[in-house]
Amino acid sequence: MKPVKLEGNALEVATSRYLMPGEDWNACSLRVADTMAAPEINDKIKYRDAFHEMIGTMDFLPGGRILRNASRTRGSLFNCYHLPVNDSIEEIGQFLKDSLILWAEGGGVGSNFSKLRPRGDVILGKGGKSSGLVSFIEAADAVANTVESGGARRAAALAHVNVDHPEVMDFIDAKLVHGKLSHFNISVAITDDFIEAVEQDSNWTFKFNQKEYGTVKAKVIWDKIVDNMIKSAEPGLINWTNFQKNNSWYYDPVLGTNPCGETCLSAYDVCDLGSLVLPNFITGSVNTNWIKLEQTIRLAVRFLDNVIQCNKYVMKEIENKANRSRRIGIGILGVAEYLFAKKVRYGSERSIQELERLMQFIRNKCYEASVELAAEKGAFPAFDPVMYGKSSFIRKLPASLRLDIKKWGVRNVSLQAIAPTGTISLLTNYTSSAEPLFAKAYERKDRVSNRIYVHPMYERMIKNDEEIPDWFVDSFDLKPQDHFNVQAIIQKYVDSSVSKTINLPKETTSQDLSKLLLENITDLKGVTVYRDGSRGEQPLNQITKDQAIEHIKKGIVKNTLETGDVTCANGKCDL
Fold this sequence. Notes:
With 575 residues, the protein is α/β, with parallel strands linked by helices. The protein is built from 21 helices and 21 strands.
C-alpha cells in the first residue's frame, strides 16, 4: 500500500482537525484502522490492514469525528444526533443539557421543535403564557455560543418546524437578521397536502394539539418561504411525506434530521458516517472499477458497523438507540471529478444515466454486505423480517436480495446517507459530496487572507490555450434544474437523505424558484438552495478567465481546494 501524502491545504486541514501530534496521514489512518478493527476478535490483523489500506489510499474516508477521536480517551465517533424536545420546561431543560453534552463531544444536533406550544398560548397549571418556540430556539443558540468543541469545531444545530404549526410564520423569519441563530440551520417540514394546497391556492389551517389556530392561504406561507430562500438561503425544506418513509417505520418512526439534513433519525439517533471517494474507482481514464468498488463497500459497511461498538458513549439513550438500530451512512464525494474523468457534463442526460448505474450498484452492494454481516454477527436487534420487508425502500430492492434479507436478516436498519463532506473532501482535493465544481477559478476571502484558486485542469487549459470542453463545468455553467436532476437520481437509491445545495444564479427571482421547487420537491426528501450573492459576506466569489490568467502570470494561485459545500450550516458541517 502507498498511502496518500498530504500537502498544502490538505495537510493544514488534517493537522488542525484530525492528526494527533507527530502523526502523518499514514499514522492517522493506521490509528483509526486499528481502533475499528478491535471488534473483529478472530481477524483483527486482517481487518486492521484492510481498513488501513482503504483509508490510507483514500478510497473511503470516515466522518471527521472518527478520524479525530479514534483511540483518544474521550470524544464521540458520531458526527451528529437528533434530540427530542417536548412541551414542558423540564423537557426543554433536558434538551439544553443533552445538547450541551453532545456539542462538547463535537456532535451536531438536530431537533423538531413542533411540539412546543406557540407564542401566547396559555400554560395551564403553572400559569402565564408561552414565549413561543422561536424564543426557545434562540435560547438554545445562546447556549451553543458558549461551546467550542474538540478540533475547533463550532456547535452546529438544526431546528425544523412543521408547516401547520401556529408559529411557523415567525419561525420562517427567524434568521432574517444577520448573525441571529448563527449556530442553527432552520427548515420547514412540508407535506404533499401542503404542496397541493399551494398549487390549488386553497386555505391552510394552523394546528397544535388538535386545536385549530386560524387559516391562511397556503400560498402566503409558501411565498414567505421562497422569498426568504432567495434573500438568505434559509429556511430549507424537508418533504415530510417522503422523509418519514424509513426502514425503522414499524418500531421507531423518524422525528427529524441532523444539521445538514442527510440522515433520517428518531429520538437520540446518530449519524455514523463515511464516504466513498469516487474518482479513485476510475481506471483507464473512463471506466469504473466495479470490482474494487464492491470490495471497498463491503469493507466500509463493516467498518462503520464496528464504529457503533467502539464508540465511547456519554448518554445511555444514545448507546441504546445506536445498538438497537445500528444505523450507518455510506456516502460519496468527488462526483464532479468522477464525471470529469468520464468526460460527462454534470446534469446532462448521460450523467443521470451514469449516476443511476453507480448509485444502484452502491445501494445493492451496501445491502448485500449488511446481509452478510447479519449472517455472521446477527441482525440489528429490532429487525422483523415481515415488517422490515414492508418498507417502501426495501420493496424496491432486487427480489433475490429481499429473499436474502428474509432468510438472514440485515445488520443495519439503514445504510446510506449522502453527507456534505465539507471538510474531509479537502483531504482529497476533490469536490465535496454530490456537488458540481463550485467555480473553475475563484477568490476566497476570510479572516486569514484573500487567496486565488484555479482548478489545475482549467489552469492547464489556459496555459495551452485549449478550448474549454462542454463537460468541464462548474456551478455557474449549470441551470438549477441540472442540480435537481442529479439530487433526484441519487435520492432514488439512498435509504436516508441527500445533503446538497441547489446553486441559483444571482438573477433568480422568487417566481423562478417557486416553479422549480413545486416541480421537483416531490422527488426529494429535502432542499437547500443558495442564490449567488444572497449572503453579502460569502467567502467564495467567482473570478473571470481574464482575472485567472492575470493571477496565473503573477504566480499567486492555489491549485488545492479550500472549500466543500459553501452553504451547509454556515460552514459547520465537519463531515
